Amino acid sequence: FDEVRSKGGKILSFVSYCGGLPAPENADNPLRYKFSWNPRSSIINTMGWAKYLLNNKEIEVPAGGGLLDSVQEIDFLPGFNLEGYPNRDSLVYKNTYGINNAHTVLRGTLRYKGFTSAMKGLLELGLLSDEPHPSLHPKGPEITWRQFLCILMGQQDDILASNVKNLVHEKVGKCDHRTKAIEDLGLLEDMPVEKKNTPLDTLTFHLSNKLAYEHGERDIVIMRHDVGIQWHNDKKEVRHIDMVTYGDPNGYSAMAKTVGYPAAIAAKMILQGEIQAKGMLLPFAPEIYAPMLQRLKNEGIRYFERTTKVSP
To answer: What is the pLDDT of residue 109?
Structure first.
């Protein structure tokens, strides 16, 4: 942004997507996702609300599953087979980044294709509810996942497993992908449920074991910025900035690197007197972000940039 402004240009749009995912070879479960941070927060974020600006129109996505209906196919980095959905309030970044005149501002989350459809199935079954459920009281009688799904669907809990699967198939809109995801996650089995009071917390506990990283597996953080620019001569372009960082098997995860290294570099800059300003600072000043980006490259975190010219 500073470079564009210094050359007399202006920012027309800013679309940014980011996701922490298992590396493709380890995305081997129905959600194609594993937990590299707080499992509950990971799931709750899919149930949140969002707000963004698209062609000067404010778009609001309601909480409670609206994000799962707002998923977009992602056409960049096609080898990763990604999808994306909005993340919280993108409008705050207009002021934060000084791009108040931009007609489009969107910040989104990346997942592998199929994630939101599988999550939609869990939502339709009532498994993402954060309301206490009498069958899930920690001191209540033992219950299996198959029995609990029967209760959620208003059925007797002693029906045949094949009939439960058929009922689930109906409940999730006759979607084969969602039904298979629910089955592969072990939710149709006669496996005892570790009861955590609410469906959401109970499912989160189950998935935190089911979707954990195994020894020797690695994660990946993918980030993409698309910045629309208009120059003083009215020529337009879109700047595409990609960052793809892999974790090290049996070493630091990509999530740990991309979160931890910037904080560590900033701390060292303060200790060495390179950052003189006081108080709570964002890394928007060139004297902070320029050396930080260079040092991140030295740690293997680098971005790649290309430009697409826009016809008048």
So the answer is: 97
- 69: pLDDT confidence band, cut at 50, 70 and 90? very high
> Are 8 and 184 spatial neighbours (Cβ–Cβ below 8 Å)?
no
38: amino acid identity, one letter: N
Using the predicted structure, report yes or no on whether residue 36 has a pLDDT greater than 80.
no
DSSP E strands in the chain: the ranges are 10-22, 50-54, 57-61, 72-73, 82-86, 88-89, 104-112, 219-230, 236-246, 303-310
Q: Work out the mean pLDDT of the chain and round it to a whole number.
A: 94
Q: What is the DSSP code (8-state) at residue 192?
A: B
Sign of the torsion formed by the C-alpha atoms of 14, 98, 47 and 139: positive
Find all residues with CB under 8 Å of 155, minimum gap 6, and list them.
Answer: 164, 167
Domains in the chain, ordered, with CATH?
A: 2-118+214-310 (3.30.360.10), 132-197 (no CATH)
Is 255 a residue whose pLDDT tops 80? Answer: yes
- Whether residue 312 has pLDDT greater than 80: no
CA atoms within 13 A on the CB side of 129: 13
